[in-house]
Design goal:
single chain; alpha+beta; Jelly Rolls; 5-stranded antiparallel β-sheet; 10 strands; 25% strand; Cupin_1; metal-binding; apoplast; secreted; manganese ion binding
Length: 220
């Protein structure tokens, strides 16, 4: 009997390991439509690889993060991204970096990274940051006021934001757990899609008058 239980346990563990190993690779773009003709294929869920023998140090290097981004815009912030498009050597390594500049009282508005967790460190200034959990967890808001040297994590896929609550510019750097984490800015996506989402759908979803929805769509 003990021998039977031992064999059953081994079988279950082997099956569990097989299932755990059989997963799809993480997507590196918004969608990857299948195509039968390889001559018409342009992307392979990310980038093609260079011959390793032809690689050099410049493939793993970029510069310019010392330069402040232009925050003269509607939201008062600028994101400078260092991903696989800037550093080809990042391909398949599952990591990228951004510099975020904030004007006084500027913000990085609510957005989400569908393919990456973000860890942010404040280099200068004071930020009010937060994220909202999923519907399953009751849409709870997690917030914190961060000062220079403070660190905060935004879990993958969750809506989050940062706002400069100081009267001087602020700067933060963030690492993301994907070579191309993607970004979906909520307001731009909902009210600025092309073509626009039917205003009646948005009016019912947000419990707003349809005229307000149409006004908001014109802003984007």
């Amino acid at each position: 009997m003990k021998g039977t239980n031992f064999l059953l346990t081994l079988t279950i563990l082997a099956l569990a390991n097989s299932i755990a190993s059989a997963y799809d690779p993480s997507p590196l773009q918004d969608f990857c439509v299948a195509i039968d003709d390889p001559n018409k294929a342009l992307f392979v869920n990310g980038k093609f690889c260079k011959n390793p023998k032809l690689a050099n140090a410049d493939d793993f290097f970029t510069s310019g993060l010392n330069i402040p981004g232009n925050t003269n815009n509607a939201v008062g912030s600028n994101v400078t991204t260092v991903n696989v498009d800037k550093i080809p050597g990042l391909n398949t390594l599952g990591i990228s970096l951004v510099r975020i500049d904030y004007a006084p009282y500027g913000q990085n508005p609510p957005h989400t990274h569908p393919r990456g967790t973000e860890i942010l460190v404040v280099a200068e200034g004071t930020l009010y940051v937060g994220f909202v959990s999923s519907n399953q967890d009751g849409n709870r808001l997690f917030t914190k006021v961060l000062n220079k040297g403070d660190v905060f994590v935004f879990p993958i896929g969750l809506i989050h934001f940062q706002a400069n609550i100081g009267h001087i510019p602020a700067v933060a750097f963030a690492g993301l757990s994907s070579q191309n984490a993607g970004v979906i800015t909520i307001a731009n996506t909902v009210f600025g899609s092309e073509p626009p989402i039917n205003p009646e759908v948005l009016a019912r979803a947000f419990k707003l008058d349809i005229n307000i929805v149409e006004y908001l769509q014109k802003q984007f």
